[in-house]
């Protein structure tokens, strides 16, 4: 897949680009609804012998429109790119969302980023909007066009009578419901981080942990203890993760930390990147009265999580 960063204005010319079927959207999460849009573009392209493209944006519009500096993503850009590539797309256009782009009239957006990229068939979700203040949408797009363009609008995809959306997945994660998030995404929620040195307290109580440093702005699930799978060098291990503040040992509430106790594993992981796959919320994070109470609970957590994986 060719990855092409763009901004407004860009210098690509229609004449130097192949006739293209494109799916457009922000696509955070690449959930089942997003996959439906992209796969429809792929099917149309295959039947008409054209190339496929996905047109997406970075950063999230709220960074520019609302001044947010701490936007967290279900799929940070690098992971979104990998997922799009896995679907078999020929080209990925990543348009920089800045103030200039946000003020572009919808007609000019279409001329510059659709017609100008030699897109002759556009696929988008029913609720996709574009142009200044979202004035362009899939209902009025034909009125805004200055050149012929075929349009395919994808209706909402429901699960349990509710639309599958990035915001719904975030709500599920806010409640710790990583299983529902997995259903809506069509794959488990996961993240990748580097194993760094921690306070090494876990090793002294029989529960050594890998402490993760995240270099991407992930949207994390609810604070608590989870059953997880850990992928190390393409090998998968069961384990339990604590996402939280370690209140038993500290009164300070800084950014939440991720510590993973990997079952039946005792190797040095410092400096390595490992993948965490969230499988089930086990319990809330609590402050214990002392070490003995904490150890008792950790043993119970391990027993419960091993049983969970045994029954899967």
TrEMBL record:
Q: Which UniProt keywords apply?
A: ATP-binding, FAD, Flavoprotein, FMN, Kinase, Multifunctional enzyme, Nucleotide-binding, Nucleotidyltransferase, Transferase
- Reactions accelerated catalytically: FMN + ATP + H(+) = FAD + diphosphate; riboflavin + ATP = FMN + ADP + H(+)
- List this protein's GO terms for biological process: FAD biosynthetic process; FMN biosynthetic process; riboflavin biosynthetic process
Pathway(s) annotated for this protein in UniProt: Cofactor biosynthesis; FAD biosynthesis; FAD from FMN: step 1/1; Cofactor biosynthesis; FMN biosynthesis; FMN from riboflavin (ATP route): step 1/1
- Record GO terms (molecular function): ATP binding; FMN adenylyltransferase activity; riboflavin kinase activity
Does the keyword Nucleotide-binding feature in the UniProt annotation? Answer: yes
- State the protein's purpose: Catalyzes the phosphorylation of riboflavin to FMN followed by the adenylation of FMN to FAD.
Q: Specify the protein name.
A: Riboflavin biosynthesis protein
Checking SMART domains in the record gives: Flavokinase
Residue ranges constituting the Riboflavin kinase domain according to the UniProt record: 184-310
**Which top EC class applies here?**
transferase
- Enzyme Commission number: 2.7.1.26, 2.7.7.2
* Similarity comment: Belongs to the ribF family.
Record-linked Pfam families: FAD_syn, Flavokinase
């Amino acid at each position: 897949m060719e990855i092409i960063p763009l901004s407004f204005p860009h210098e690509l010319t229609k004449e130097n680009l192949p006739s293209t079927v494109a799916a457009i959207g922000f696509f955070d999460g690449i959930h089942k609804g997003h996959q439906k849009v992209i796969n429809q573009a792929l099917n149309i392209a295959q039947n008409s012998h054209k190339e496929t493209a996905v047109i997406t944006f970075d950063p999230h519009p709220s960074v520019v429109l609302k001044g947010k500096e701490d936007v967290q993503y279900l799929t940070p850009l690098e992971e979104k790119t990998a997922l799009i590539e896995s679907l078999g797309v020929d080209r990925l256009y990543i348009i920089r969302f800045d103030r200039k782009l946000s003020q572009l009239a919808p007609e000019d957006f279409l001329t510059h980023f659709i017609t100008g990229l030699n897109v002759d068939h556009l696929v988008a979700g029913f609720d996709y909007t574009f142009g200044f203040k979202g004035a362009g949408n899939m209902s009025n797009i034909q009125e805004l066009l200055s050149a012929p363009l075929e349009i395919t609008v994808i209706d909402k995809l429901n699960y349990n009578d509710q639309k599958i959306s990035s915001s719904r997945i975030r709500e599920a994660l806010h409640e710790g419901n990583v299983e529902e998030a997995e259903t809506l995404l069509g794959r488990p929620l996961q993240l990748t981080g580097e194993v760094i040195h921690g306070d090494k307290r876990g090793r002294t109580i029989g529960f050594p942990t890998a402490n993760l440093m995240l270099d991407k702005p992930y949207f994390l699930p609810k604070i608590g203890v989870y059953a997880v799978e850990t992928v190390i060098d393409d090998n998968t291990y069961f384990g339990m993760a604590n996402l939280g503040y370690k209140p038993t040992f500290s009164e300070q509430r800084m950014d939440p930390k991720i510590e993973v106790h990997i079952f039946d594993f005792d190797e040095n992981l410092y400096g390595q990147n490992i993948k965490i796959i969230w499988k089930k919320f086990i319990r809330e994070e609590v402050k214990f009265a002392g070490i003995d109470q904490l150890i008792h609970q950790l043993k119970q957590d391990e027993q419960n999580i091993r049983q969970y994986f045994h029954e899967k």
